Structures are given as C-alpha cells and as structure tokens.
Amino acid sequence: MPGSDLANLLARIDFGLITAMHIVYPPLTIGLSVLLLFGEWRWVRTDSEHWYRMTRFFEKLFLINFGAGVATGVTMELAFGILYGPFSAAAGPVFGRLLGFETITAFMYEAGFVGLMVFGWHKIGRRMHLFATFNVALASSISGFWILAANSWMQDPEGVAEVGGNFFATDWFKVIFNDDSLTAVPHMLIAALEQSLVVGVAVAAFFVYKSRHTEMFTKALRALIPALVIVAAFQIFMGDSLGQTVAHAQPAALAAMEGHYHTHNPDGSVNTGWHIVMWPNAKGDGTAWSITIPHVLSLLETHSWNGAVPGLDSIPPQDRPPVLIPFYAFRVMVAAGGAIFLLSLWGAWLLFRGRLSVEAASRNRWFLMAAMVSPVLPYIAIWTGWWTREVARQPWVVYGLMRTSEGRSPLSAGAEIAWFVGFAAFGLLVMVSTLYFILKVVRHGPDMTTPIPREGEERHEQLGSLPAVQQHAVPGE
Amino acid sequence: MQPKTHSPRTHSPRTLLRAFWVGLALMFGAMTIAAPATAQTATAQQPGQSAVASASANPAEAAAKAAARNLPMSFTTLKGMSSQTDPALSAAQKHQLLNRAMETHNLLSLAWALALALSVGMYLILDGADLGAGVLSLFHNDNQTRDGIMAAMAGTWDANETWLIVAGGILFGGFPLVYGSIFHYLALPLAILLLAILVRAISIEFHHHAERSKRWWGFGFGFGSLVTAFGIGLAGGAVLQGVPLTNVHVTYAGGGIHRVFEGGLFDCITPFSLWCGVAGVIASVMAGALYLRARFTLDSPQRHIVKPWLNVSMALLVVSVVISGIWMFSAFDWVSARWAGPFWWAFALAGLWIVFTVWKMWEAAHRDRDLESMLWYAVATASVMLTVGLTLFPWLVPGTWTIYDAADPSLSLLSFTLAMGGFFPVILVYNWYQIWVFRARISALGSYGAH
Q: Per the domain annotation, does B216 fall within a domain?
C-alpha cells in the first residue's frame, strides 16, 4: 500500500472538502430550475402577475447559486486529476467518459439556456422563454443524472473489464444503470427538489411573517407545502430503497453505517441489535457503550426476527471502512429528513385547517419561524448523506477493485495540507458571500414595479442590451 | 460623432427560433449522416469488447471468433493478443487485424485531439480577452472605468469560460492517461489557477449585488484575472517543456505498467514556464485592450485609456513571440527537429503568416476597425496554436505521450459521433448566437454612453 496512512487520510479530506463545497450548490440549482419552470408555466397559463413576480424573484436566487456551483464545479473537474491521478488514469475510460458526457450533453446545454433565460425576458416571446426555462430544468437534471451515475459506478462497479491496469466498459448499460444508480440517482434528484421546496417555503414564510406581499407568498406556501409533503415522504421511501441496495451490494458499508461489529453474539446467537447511539471501543472492534434495541436490525435489513446481518468481523480487517462517520452521519441525515417531513405535515395540517389563508397566514408565528430556519436541514442532510456514502465505501475508491491509497496522487503531506488550507478559505468565502447575497436579495424582496412582458410586445431590437442594473454602471451619462 | 462600425442593429423576432432550429437541424443532420456508421460500430463493438473481457482468459479463442466474423476489434484486445503466441491466427492475419484496429484507433484519437484543440483554442480566444480586460481594470480602478469594463463582459464571460470546462471534460473522457498523469505534475499552477478562477467568478457575480464592498470585488476580479492568465501560460509552458514520468507497476485492474509523476510540487516551475506565464499575461492584456476598444463607442473615455496599453502590449507580444520561438528552438529537440527538418519551409511560411495576421490586427486596430482587429486576433491565436500543434504532432505531451498512446484505448465511434455530430454544432451555434448578441450590445452600450 503506497503512502502513509496520514497522507491517505489527507488526500481523502482534501477531496472531501472539494466535493463538500461543491455539493452545496447544484441540488438547489436543479430543484429551483424545476420550481422556476412551474412558476413560469403557471404565469403563462393563468396570466397571474403573482406567478411572474415570484418566478423572477426566485430566478435571482437561482442565478447567484448557479454561479457559485459553476465556480466550485470547475475546481472539482480538475481536482480528480490533481489529487487522484492514478484513479483518473485507471478508471478514466469509464468514469472520465461519464463526466465527459456530462460536460457535453448537460453542462454546455444548461449554460446556453441559462443565458437565454436570464437575458431573454422582454426580448423573446413568453412561450419561447418558457421553453428556455424548461431546457434549463431538463439539462440540470441530466447533469445530476450523469454525475450520480459516475459515482454509483464507483460504488457498484459493474459492466467493466480490467485490462493492463485500466478499467474498460464492456457493457455501458450496466455501467450506467447499475443497481446502485437505480436508487441513488432518484434519491439525489429528489433531494434536490426537496431542498429547493424547503428553501421556497422558508422564503415564502419570511415574507408572510413580515406581512410583505402576503397574498403572493401565501399563494406560494399553498402550492409548495403539499408538494413538500409528497416529496419528503417519497424521499424517505427512496432512502430506504437505497439502504436496501447498499445492504445488498456493499455489506461492509451497511455494517459501518449501523456500527454492526459482530455477526454473532459471544454466546453464538445471531446479533440482531440495532444501535440508536454507540461509541466504538479503543481497539475499534466493538462498541464501548451503546443504546441498543434487539431484533430491530434484523427486521430492518432482512425483514425477519432473527435474520443474520453480516457484521464487520465478517470482513477482512484491511477492507473495513471507518465506522464513526458513517454511523453518525447516517443518523443525522435520517433525522434531518424526518424533521423536514414533520415540518411539511405541520404545514399541511395548517393548510387543511384553513389557517394559511391570506388573512390568517401570518398568525402562525411558530410555524413560520420553524419554516424560516428549516433550510439548514436539507443542507445538513445532503452533506451527511454524502459523507455516509463516501466514507462507508472506504478503503476502496472503486468498490472492491481499487483502493483509495492506490488511486491518490503521491503528493506530499505538506502539499495536501496547503491545498486544504487554500480551498477551505476560498470555499468558505464563496459560501459566506453566496449566503450573504442570497439573504440580501431576499431582504430586498421581489421587484413589483417593472412592467410584465406581454405577448406581442417583445422588444427584439434590444435583444442584446444590458439589463437595467448594469446600465447604470456605464459612465458618461 | 457617428460610429462607423457599430451601427445599431435590429433583430428579427424569429432569429432566436431560427438559431435553435438551425442547431437542431445540424444535430439531426449530423446524426443521420453518422447513423449507419454508428450502428455498425455499436453492433461491432459488443463482441469486440467482450473479447477484451475474456482476453486474459482465452485470447486465442476470442481472436479466432472475431477473425471468423471479420469484425474490427478494439486496439487493446489486439495489442494484448498479438504479444501472445496465437495458433488460431496466421502472422499475416494478425498483422492485418492489428493494422485495421490501429487505423480506427488512430483516427479517433486524432479526432478527439482536434476537438480538444478546438476547445482550448476557443477558450484562449474568447476568455483571453476577458482576462486581459480584467488585468487592465487593475490599473484603471476608478469606479467608472472598472464598472464599465465589468459591464462590458457581463453577458458572455461565463459562456466563454465553459470552453475550459469542455476542454477538461474532453481531456478526462478522451485522454484519461494524460489527465491522470499530467495534472499531478501541474498541481501547483492548477491549484492557484483554480483559486484565481474561483475568486474571479464570484467577484464578477457579486460585483453587481454589492454596494459597499464593490471595490473589493473589483479588485478580486482584476487580481483573479491576472493570476489566471499567468497560471494558464505557466501550465502551458510546463507541459511544453516535457513531463518526467516514471513507469510504475500497478496491481489493481488486472495489473500493468502505468506512467506516474513522482517528482515534487515545484518541478514544473522553470525559467521557461515562468516566461510562458509572463507571455500569457502580455497576450491577454493585448487581447483585453482590443476587446475593450471594440466594446465601447469611439468617443468613450475607456477607449482612449486602453490605447497606450494596446500599443505597448502589442509590441511586447511580438517581441515575446519571437523570444519564445527562439527559446523553444534552442531548448527543445522536438522543435528544432521539426523547424529545421524537411518541412522547414512550411514553418517559415507559417511564421510569415503569423507576422501578417499580427500586422493586419495592428493596422485594423489603428484605423478603428475594432471588430476586424478582433477577428485578426482570433486568426492570429488560431494560427499560433496550429503551428505549435503541427510542431508537436504526434506528441500531445512532448516526449511523453503521443496522441495515440494517450487516448483512451476503448474510444468508440459512437461516443465521438454523439458528441461531435450532436452537441458540438449546438454549442457552436449558441456561441455564435451569444457573440452576435454581444456585438449588438456594443451599440446599446455606446448609445447609452453617448447621451
């Protein structure tokens, strides 16, 4: 195994940082683009000013988020080669190809239509603009699909041959639609939708709470909350399906996620206990303490009272993943997902009782406050979900076929630390400024005065003119 | 004063739709043309590739099967098999099969290399100007000028930058062996470059939204542009001077020999690569000056401010191109072998042509035909790239990777056809559309400034 354990750990942390600072943005981009499409579609259909104002308002948030996503995404694209050169070379014919497909069939596609969507208002027809928005939503979902397919292949590397130190695809269908991707792709795309719905509810709740544009934003609440109930419930189901897939395809990962050290108890009976919380012992081969419910693990994983679930002791010591991070990250993710579902039920109950009417909505102080802070939940859930997934795959970079220590570039520990410091600082800068400007746009509120595009009044002669904001910056007035 | 070159243009409402349909038609047209070839490859690929899977198990049988069906097999399969004694095939048969597979592989490798060159070239031409404009904003950082400079590129800078991402995608997807071995060598310049791109992107993005912090974002934009231009030049120079790779025996994925960079972080920093960084900044400043002059109306102050920059940077650029040429000729075997080789006259002609394009660019710029000078700038950049490319050929990384060795051995016609026939035309149509839009914006901006 080349390289010291410390250097391997640093290489993992470095790439973890790059991915963690990127994954903050794309899910909201994907989800918001779908919401923008919905809002604009309602506007085109009903001609209601509210939907138009709301779409334009959320479009501003979308743009800030999109820019940050592209900036951190470029970093990630190059970081594979810099930090994981041998992995990139070995898996490139499969993994690199999938990312290449993403670049060409999704990223370029999306970037083109985003430009049209932003600069096209008042300049192209409403239907044409709706078509542009539709393409943005479609392209960003396709992008998510490719990326998840590539990652799923690392989790469940099917359909490849290993020749001369390289992986080659023998069956692209199996590579792309492996067991893991079939559940992981929808899990992530739904997470994206769920996140944007929560953000949408929070923004709407803010305005209702402050009694600004109440009529418009209660309309948003009444549309978003039922959608959130369905999406959050479906996400719990999808998460469970992914859990089943992992149990099936990566027993070591499942054992780590559940802190399941022993297949059998010391007395020979099957270990069926499920830990609510636990802490590993000093040697890392069992729990120091735990709160455990018997039979639950067997019920969850085998749907039987006493079914045996392979524990970490059934896996060779050099192939065992770390336990602490997958165990707690998984629980935090589940808790966050559950909390979102409960919040959506709370909202649905208020809606059902008629308390979200324009007159009464702002009186639900507790609900609105809870909704305003709730966006932190999906972000935590996405982060912890990815930590669970990626850490539980260790020590493999391509599960069962290539070790992380074999895949990393032999950078020195000093270089790895310098990388971490540099990108942590700039990643934080991006994150803080993105949040700052998103909050600023929200505080400023929607633009209620500029004219609404009407059919047949497109000003094509200004197709190339700058948006109003930027024109003020031009000197010589 | 009546601007001559930038008369306000009106656009027909259907132009956009037309652009879309043209793109779509091109895409389907290309697919229709490519479909028979694609279908053929798709069916032929399956047995060929499953032969890869079983190559280690029973290569002779697989080869016999494929030979019996007269199917093209992948380059790897054949290369692996030809090294083993194979009673099922005669030497002549083996030779013929290998040749055929190699031809296909080489053709595809070359096609992907051209696609890579196209993306890098588009990036250098389009974003080079934006970077240079950013560098200039460092020296003219009064609010009016800097805001004007940033507004001038508002709608297009991100579209220009997408070419860098496309180049990265092609490199990873088509040349994973280069991507995996060279990027580690370039870790330092790439890391700094990425940080600079990051700073630049958020600075432009947030400059519009900020009020009190506008100044800081403006500075971040300028500084990020400077470091990006320098870093790209440095990375390019570091690759041109050759990458020392070591053969390492790996045990994963069937085991084999991989070429890995085992040197230090600072190995890529040499006088030559540093010089290329400086030349990169000079080139981008010139491009930026040209671009800004083309973006503002004839009577706007920005246009006059950048005039001396244009003159100085253009002179410096000519000098630096000459220095780079002499340096490369005297330091690198692959350059001297080509330039002093049997085709020396072709390179001499190319040199004359580049001088001619620079002269045309200079002439057009000084007669206020800015768009024309921008086009000559694009032609000059493309010509320099083509000359370097022809000098390099068949190397992708001199002395280390030829285009053919570096390409993914399993490259398939299917994915190439999809990408090139399908999506590249669409992307190019978009780019054309966007440039067209931003050309029109000159007049809008100009008429605004002229009030």
A: yes
